[in-house]
Amino acid sequence: MKADVVLGLQWGDEGKGKIVDVLTPAYRVIARFQGGPNAGHSLEFEDKKFVLHTIPSGIFHETVTNIIGNGVVIDPVILMAEINKLNALGVDVSKRLLISKKAHLILPTHRIIDAAAEAAKGKTKIGSTLKGIGPTYMDKTGRNGLRVGDILSSAFMERYTALKNKHIEFLKQFDYAYEVEEYEKQWMEGIENLRSFSFVESEYAINKYFSEGHKILAEGAQGSLLDVDFGSYPYVTSSSTICAGACTGLGIAPGKIGVVMGIFKAYCTRVGSGPFPTELDNEVGERIRQAGREFGATTGRARRTGWLDLVALKYAVMISGVTQLIMTKADVLDDFDEIQVAVAYTSNGEEIQHLPFEINDPLEPVYKTFKGWKRPISGIKNEAELPFELMNYVRFIEKETGVPVKIISVGPDRAQTIVR
User: Fold this and answer.
1) Is 0.85 surpassed by the pTM of this model?
2) What share of the chain is helix, strand, coil (3-state, %, to 5)?
3) Which residue in the list 4, 13, 75, 114 is annotated as catalytic?
4) What is the mean pLDDT of residues 177-194?
5) Is there a catalytic annotation at residue 41?
């Protein structure tokens, strides 16, 4: 058996949570491979909305095992709140969730470092969610980190205190006032809550599922254009958001990767700072924002909006070897007379069809215009009923990327999904 992968192809918020929830019945295991509570995966069904930050999006399915992989960073306070909400809904999280011993812990002081460093950047802020993600990954690569498995050690408090004191020394360089005691108290409660869950060597667990013939779905967070190596650096996250991240974030050999499903919106959004060639900072962009309810599931911040960027989409497809595309939020464009898609850029008077190294330099999009379908599609149940104009748009994307669009989402509910 092989692991299929679901990942975002833009700057995050593509609708991964809903799609993973829809796909979950076909799998035995859903495993998150990177990121942390900076992610917000939204799911809607039975007229209710749920937002998951750390727990994999298969948690609502009783027969599925959900794994938080070694590539994920965990804030025990946020995870405890998430678990409590799910338990209140009747979801027995303890029976459905396994946590990698090698996943790193976000300390209260990681959050403070994140906020202090972001404040010090002034106008050059990257738009951090201030969840402590970056500083935690810095400690991971710097070999200073505290991991979930350390909770089981008799030396846990000693290790925690040593890292906390190192952070306090580091914070002296910033003119930043902070208080850690209250959040630290909640954090320790979260640690005690974690002790009631099953910690595993997730790489062994996942490969055991392989050997037993079970299907696994690897769930990514954020989007490919936020990848620490291949994204719009430095306006990126601190982990590998592309397909390769599933290998390092779960312990899956490259040869064990199966179908790679890339999710993209019918348009583009971005949260925080950084380049966005097709951004619509105008009335059209605001129409998209309101129709798509484009406000961050984690931060609540209004998302920047713009037309679909095919140059960036083809780049993301190439980097991860995407074999299937999934279009979400097609219904958001129901009322537009025309829809545009960027097929190239002009840079210094030259037309280019690739993402340049200096993506932060001004890039003017070259657009192709499509006729809108001008009718609601959220109630459509099968492909044959989809408007010709929408399918013309879809077929153009397939031709340009060389990858089939296998799923079209026409609304936020799990039932509003058309599998082609």
Assistant:
1) yes
2) 35, 25, 40
3) 13
4) 94
5) yes
